[in-house]
Amino acid sequence: ILKNTYFKTLMNIETFEGIVDELYQYAETAEVYGAGTTTVPSTLFCCLFRLFTIGISYDELQQLLETRDWAYIRCCGFLYIRFGCAPEKLWDQLGDYCLDDQEFEPSKLQPNLTVTIGEYVEALLMG
After folding, report:
1. Which strand (E) or helix (H) includes residue 93?
2. Burial class (CB in 10 A: 0-12, 13-18, 19+), 64
């Protein structure tokens, strides 16, 4: 990620709000890699890593998780917990979201495949 051109541009954004704006504008997948590649990180994962480098508050994390108009922002929040939380606390943090029925397309490679946020969170907990 550190060598990625897009991530380098994110280094100029120093606020939580700025990163969220990037997610709104450019995140179109919940995948690790950009469409059609296995080496270029996706927008979502570049923004996720940037959030780790700037650090976010509990309230900001809640903003990510509760955003209802762009599922990829919520995915970023779930991933922030998945990668940043102690394993024994994951269920406490994510369990309530397993029943969330908001639908979205996690991948542009399978445009007709929709999953619920609950299914996505369950996969994070199981993986």
Report:
1. helix 90-94
2. buried
pLDDT of residue 36: 81
What's residue 126's pLDDT?
A: 94
Largest pairwise CA distance in the chain: 37
Residue 37's pLDDT is 85
Contact partners, residue 82, CB within 8 Å, separation at least 6:
90, 94, 124
Cα separation, 115 vs 7, whole angstroms: 28
Q: How far apart are CA 92 and CA 101, in angstroms?
A: 19
Q: Using the structure block, give the residue that is written with the tokens 């994962």.
A: 45
- What's the CA gap between 87 and 9, in Å, rounded? 32
pTM for the whole structure: 0.95
Residue with tokens 């709000």: 17
121 SS3 class: helix
How many percent of the chain have pLDDT more than 90? 89
